[in-house]
TrEMBL record:
Protein name per UniProt: Chromosome partition protein Smc
Record keywords, A-Z: Coiled coil
Protein's UniProt keywords contain Coiled coil: yes
Biological source species: Gimesia fumaroli
Coiled coil stretches, renumbered: 73-100, 166-226
Length: 268
């Protein structure tokens, strides 16, 4: 294995040295250009329908990313709603605590020395200590509320951004699906046109068939002309035809012998 690696390294070094010697400083440019030419040649040989199907597969591969984005959005919505409820409860509790503090403060500023709360008596010092604790907790709750409100705004901003991203992904996916459908329709049209253009017809056979049809038409034309010519001399009155009349021998003899009709001829 080590020997093979050494041979590979040596071969690569020899090729690099030879390339530098032949092409000089432009060897890198030549290598890149050759690589681009090979890539373009290979790409040109890939069928278009394969590339269309590859584009469809790439669009379909967006579905897992879209689902992950939808899952993240759903989790963020739950977190935002939960934090909104927490802030609402904190604000309500702080309002009640503020009212209680001002009640204690009002009692503390009075001239009374003892105070009764829920059937129990408290001294002014107890009221002062309780008010101090309440005030300290109120300040901590106020800081916590401010931080939660900041966190809520950040989460809502992130949620809006992810929603916009999801909408863009869905819109882009739909647009690409429409474009792929259009590509497939164009591809089918081109393939149909290529099929028609590549259709080979035996022109010689077609020419012979046309010639035969022409000859048959000519023969039928001749026969029709002959029949038409013969029809002109048949079925008409034979004006030019002379009928041989029968010889009237008796009349010829009467004329010759100068006889009248009814005379008796005496033979001498």
């Amino acid at each position: 294995m080590v020997f093979f690696c050494k041979k590979f390294v040596i071969g690569a070094a020899v090729l690099a040295t030879l390339g530098t010697f032949v092409f000089g400083r432009d060897v890198v440019s030549y290598v890149k250009t050759a690589g681009n030419s090979v890539r373009d040649a290979v790409k040109a040989e890939v069928p278009v329908d394969f590339e269309v199907e590859r584009a469809r597969k790439m669009v379909e591969d967006l579905v897992p990313d879209i689902r992950r984005c939808m899952h993240v959005i759903a989790e963020q919505q739950v977190d935002v709603e939960s934090l909104q409820n927490e802030i609402h409860d904190s604000e309500l509790a702080m309002k009640q605590q503020k009212e209680a503090m001002f009640t204690l403060r009002s009692d503390l500023e009075s001239s009374d020395t003892e105070f009764v709360y829920a059937s129990r008596t408290y001294s002014k010092d107890e009221i002062r200590n309780d008010l101090a604790q309440r005030f300290d907790r109120f300040k901590v709750a106020t800081d916590t509320l401010k931080r939660n409100q900041q966190i809520l705004r950040a989460r809502e901003k992130a949620l809006d951004a992810n929603r916009e991203k999801l909408e863009n992904m869905l819109s882009a996916k739909m647009d690409m699906e429409v474009q792929i459908e259009q590509l497939e329709a164009r591809l089918k049209s081109v393939q149909a046109a290529e099929t028609v253009s590549n259709l080979e017809i035996d022109n010689s056979q077609l020419t012979r068939a046309k010639g035969l049809i022409k000859d048959l038409n000519k023969q039928l034309d001749v026969k029709e002309k002959l029949l038409d010519a013969e029809g002109k001399f048949t079925g008409l009155i034979p004006v030019d035809t002379k009928v041989e009349e029968k010889r009237d021998v008796v009349k010829q003899m009467d004329e010759y012998f100068k006889l009248k009709s009814g005379d008796k001829v005496a033979v001498q």
